Amino acid sequence: AETYSRDEIVNSASDFFGVTAEAAGAVVEKAFHDNGRPTGYIAGEEGSVAITVGLRYGKGLLYMKNRRPVTVYWQGPSIGWDLGGNAARVFTLCYGIQAPDQIYQRFPGVEGSAYFVGGLGVNYQRADAITLAPIRAGVGLRLGANVGYLAYTRDRHILPF
């Protein structure tokens, strides 16, 4: 699949988050340094809550060059030392995806967050040869670290399993 340049991603992320290119560029630069050029990205929104056990739900569009955007839902449980809730806009860089259908699977990950009112951060999820790098800009009150997975699906699911 064709890849996106750093400038294309920085411009899309800064437009999506409503921040300056410099603010988005710092986080995007880390993902590019670690993983190279992405073959796609997901722009969406999510909500999560946790009191030791957490739940996360989201919805977005998967963009790939020369393809129509595809709607993607995600949901998943987590467990760990984690307390709080947040709502976030999520811009997920997708590495190794050659076709949109490859997104529909479970991606395990580890996440740590600490913010009061707002924050911007990135973590990585990997399954098979695919890496996802969700960049989240959220509001809420959240503190902790957890392990879990996100299941990316074609349809919305209430149960996160």
Describe what this molecule looks like in 3D:
By secondary structure, the protein is of the alpha+beta class. The protein is built from two helices and five strands; from the N terminus they run ααβββββ. The chain has helices spanning 6-17, 21-35; strands at residues 40-64, 70-95, 106-122, 125-127, 130-153. Strands 1, 2, 3, 4 and 5 form a five-stranded antiparallel β-sheet that branches. A hairpin with a 5-residue loop joins strand 1 (40-64) and strand 2. Helix 1 crosses helix 2 (21-35). The longest helix has 15 residues, at 21-35. It is globular.
Strand-helix topology:
Layout: H1 6-17, H2 21-35, E1 40-64, E2 70-95, E3 106-122, E4 125-127, E5 130-153
Antiparallel strand pairs: 1-2, 2-5, 3-5, 4-5
Mean pLDDT: 92
Overall form: globular
What Rg is obtained from the alpha carbons, in whole angstroms?
Answer: 15 Å
Fraction of residues in H or I helices: 10-25%
Helix and strand content put the structural class at alpha+beta
Helix segment tally: 2
Strand percentage lies at over 45%
Which consecutive residue ranges, at least 5 long each, have pLDDT under 50? none
Task: Please summarize the sheet with the most strands.
Answer: 5 strands, antiparallel
Q: Descriptors for this entry?
A:
161 residues; alpha+beta; 5 strands; globular
Short description:
The chain is an alpha+beta fold and 161 residues long.
